[in-house]
Structures are given as structure tokens and as C-alpha cells.
Amino acid sequence: MSSLPFRTLAPYLRESFGRPVYRVALDAGSTCPNRDGTKGFGGCHYCDVEGSGTGALAEGSALTRQLEAGIARVRRRDPNPGVIAYFQSYTGTYVDDTRLAETLAVVEPFCPDPVVAVSVATRPDTLPDSALARLSALAQRIPVWVELGLEAADDAILTAINRLHTVEEFLEATRRTRAAGLTTVGHAILGLPGDGRDGARRTAEVLAESGVEGVKVHQMMVLEKTVLATRWRRGEISVLDPETYVSWLADFVERLAPEQVLHRLTGDAPLEKRLAPRWSVHKSEIRERLAAELEGRGTRQGQRHSNAVEG
To answer: How much is the pTM?
Structure first.
């Protein structure tokens, strides 16, 4: 049992699978509707065109090699690991039904050991019924997580950063994933341009309302080859310092539901690609500072959730 005043991923994975579990990131090469012109061009303003995927569909054999190589890397650390096959790049369900079936079939020879779960990153506006049916069928054999980006709970902010979906589309997507028997992980970014401390609080409240089982949150980062990089160089935007981020993060965690699992508390990217922030603070220190902040306030995760019972 963790003594932290918030729920973190590692204990949840040990409870769920009975052993240490590691992610293996896979790049199936899908693209995104706000890159290919379906909704827009250029992608989200914070998204590095090279950082999330190739944009070229990987053949099944190539995906198999990625998974085998990832499993081999993990086994060098742990001889009996559990593995989450994580389709990370771009929008995992933004492909036709045949292509999605081929992609998911890659993991089947490795299930249920060492692959103990499958996670698919996608957008709330690219979840056709056919994709949900495919994921639901796989979930009969192995847990399936759907990772959905909310990022900010404000339609104006989502438009301004070229995200090009709405808060209601996110909520509707979570209703549909839940009905399909899938585990859902919501994503949030604190400190986006125009989205201040109140925005961080509101985003947590929407994530709590949505009922997602997991939450990933990180600070806004300015990466090379992004729209944010251009604006940052012009001095038009700023990033959060560690102290401010931890304070906002505490507000955020207080407003989540107590049972939601925090999969991530901070973000990272290679220094050669990351312009800002350039913190010298390790992610473990952010976790420790967050715990100290909540303990100093006398609060915990869920303390300010709308259904929390004061005591």
C-alpha cells in the first residue's frame, strides 16, 4: 500500500498483474486528422512532427520486430516481466478497420504472456464503432486501455492550440469506451497558452466527471519544430517553473476522483528537442514535492472532488 496522498501507477500494476509491468512503445505509423487536412493541418501546436510517430504505416512484420525488440530490452532488466504493448504514435484508431485489425493482431501471439495489456493512444473524435468493436473483442482476451487526449477542458483553448475537438466529444468518447468494456486513460497538459490555474482545476473536474480510470498529466513543453517553438522564441508564451507546476498539480490532483490512477505526473523529452522548460528536477522529485505540497495543505487526491465527503 502506498503512503502517498495520491494513487500512482506502479502499485496499481502490481495489484492488477502480480508482477512488475513495463511499457513497450510501438509505432504503427498512423497519422492524425489535424495533420492530413481532414480537420486541419500542422497538428497540435505542442506536437513535434517527429516525436510521436513516423506517419508511414508500418507493416505487420516491422511491428512484430518492434515488439520483440522491446520485450528483449525489458527482459534484460527483469527475467519475468509483464509487458504493456503501447501503440503510442499519433492516433492509433485513425486507420481503416482492416488496418486496425492487422495492427492489433501483432500482439496476439504474445498474449497473455509476456504481454498482459494493450494500450492504444488516440483522439476522442477518431473512435468509430468499428474500432471500438475491434478493441472490445481483444478485451475479451486481455485488458485493453484507450488513451484519450483531453489536454484542456476549454473549447476555446482546444481551438487555439489546433487540437480541433471539443470537451463534449471527449466526454462522449469516454461514455462509449466505458460501454465497450474498455479501460480509459485521459490526458491533460497544465500551462497551455491562455489556460491558467483555474484551467488546471477545471480540467481535473472534467476528467473526474468523465469517469476515466487513469490520468496522465504533464507540464506544457516547448519542443523544436512546433508552433509553440516559434511563439516561445518570439517571447509570446512562457512555461511553468517547478514550484508553480507543483502547486497547480496539487490543485489538479485534489479535484480528481479518489480512485483514479495517476499514470504520469510530469513530462520529459530529449534535451536536444526540448527548448523549455529546462528543469533540473527529476520526475521522482516532482512526485515527492507534490506529496509534500498536499501534506502541507492537509489534503489528498479527491479532497476537492465534487462527490468527496469532508472529514
So the answer is: 0.93
Calculated CA dihedral for residues 272, 275, 277, 279, nearest 10 degrees: 30
Contact of 94 with 31, CB cutoff 8 Å: yes
> What is the number of other CB atoms lying within 10 angstroms of the CB of residue 66?
18
Q: Are 84 and 116 in contact (CB under 8 A)?
A: yes
pLDDT over 80 (residue 310): no
Which pLDDT does position 18 carry in this prediction? 94
Check residues 238 and 1 and name the one with the higher pLDDT: 238
pLDDT 10s digits, 217-236: 999 999 999 999 999 999 99
DSSP state of 241: -
- The grid coordinates listed for 110 are 504474445
Instruction: Indicate the SS3 state at residue 7.
Output: coil
Is residue 41 within 8 Å of residue 34, measured between CB atoms?
Answer: yes
* 9-297 CATH fold: TIM Barrel (3.20.20)
Domain ranges of the chain: 9-297
How far is Cα 133 from Cα 143, in angstroms, rounded to an integer? Answer: 14
